[in-house]
Amino acid sequence: MEMDIPVFLDGKFTTVRLFDQSGRALEETDFENVGRYKVYPYPHPETITLPLFLQGVKRVTNLRTVLPPGYAELIKTMVRTGLTGEEPIEVQGQKGVPLEFAVAFIISQREKLLKESGLAGPVGCLKIVVKGYKDDEKNSYIFSTSSKKQGMGEGTGTPAALGAMLMGMGRIGGKGVFPPEGCVNLMDMLELVQAEVKLGGGSASMTVEHIDPRGRSEKMDFLSAGGG
């Protein structure tokens, strides 16, 4: 939370800090099957790698939140107070590590904050928004994969598993270390989603929405019957 967070704004690499004005909530966003929340800058590789592989891109940010919001704010408060040090201190004859106290206190409040928020269990949504111009007309594409039961487990684990399957099928070439946008064919990935991903019980969704220049929306659900 206290590190410099890399972002790509107006065609240039720069950094922001969560607790400075530069790191304030950049926007609110709707998450599929989860709700609308404020999101904040978060350090992740995409802000560094995407501009290297997508020529002409002007803005790349990675924004996130932790649910419930009160839980995230509690963590921020503990960091702001400085109670995250790892060197033992002594208070009225009692020695301890501030970080251990901070973690224990945060965990002790989690169930209470979850109950107050109305969340019955882990939920999560990975959302990718791509905006740009084609033939001088603005288009937007929104990809969302969400889960009502496993938090980010499905959003993180499923793409990694699909990538491993594509490697086994010989559809990922090149040697060395690449980010996904540098080695994975998007259509190969989506075809594999339709053929292999089965997340039952209505607990998950995986959609792509296109918003055309006139604001009309068309959405495809890749986990629906028949692959969408």
- Helical element count? 5
- The gyration radius over C-alpha positions equals 21 Å
End-to-end span in angstroms?
Answer: 39 Å
Oligomer: single chain
Supply the helix-strand structural class: alpha+beta
Provide the spatial order of strands within the biggest beta sheet.
8-9-10-11
By DSSP, the count of extended strands is 11
Describe this structure in words.
The two termini are 39 Å apart. This protein has a domain at 122-228. It has a 4-stranded antiparallel beta sheet, covered by helices on one side. The chain has a 3-stranded antiparallel beta sheet with strand order 3-4-5, with no helix packed on it. It is an alpha+beta fold and 228 residues long. The protein has 5 helices and 11 strands.
Q: Mind sketching the topology for me?
A:
Blueprint: E1 5-9, E2 12-16, E3 27-31, E4 35-41, H1 46-53, E5 63-64, H2 69-80, E6 89-91, E7 94-96, H3 98-117, E8 124-134, E9 137-147, H4 153-168, H5 186-196, E10 204-211, E11 217-221
Antiparallel strand pairs: 1-2, 3-4, 4-5, 6-7, 8-9, 9-10, 10-11
